[in-house]
Amino acid sequence: MPNTKFETDFWKDEGNRKGWDDIIPGQARKTIPYILTLEAIQKYCKVVGDTHPLYFDEVYAKSTPYKGIIAPPAIHILLMFSCTPADDWMRSPGTINAGQSWSYNTPARPNDVIRLEARALDKFIKKDRLFVIHDNVFFNQNNEVICSGRGWTIRPQ
Predict the structure, then answer these.
(1) How do the domains of the chain map onto residue ranges?
(2) What is the reported pLDDT for 6?
(3) CB 108 within 8 A of CB 132
């Protein structure tokens, strides 16, 4: 069953998170389907200060090529946490984003059921830092790609 709740206490499960030895390049990460609500889209937009009517005003949004309210492209930040369980290694406190590259395809919309396919591609140690290269692809309920990305993170020791 898809998740509709978004946990806001990112530290509560810190002790259960998978660590360096649990990251296996090529292995799919466990993910959870998530129903993206209008409320979640609008809360995200308000937090990041993006009040474009495309995300809030149905009448305006219907007059655009999108034909309705959509989520902003950077919603993948919210989706990354919504679609992963509490013990996922990407949620580890102290993780540093060392870079990322995203491609955006089909906009996410209210009530889309979002699915994430994600995995570590490589992990290595350089100058006593633990690096992981990973990819993430978000799909809607029609198996259309919403966005896909590759990231580099420095893991906590």
Answers:
(1) 25-155
(2) 59
(3) no
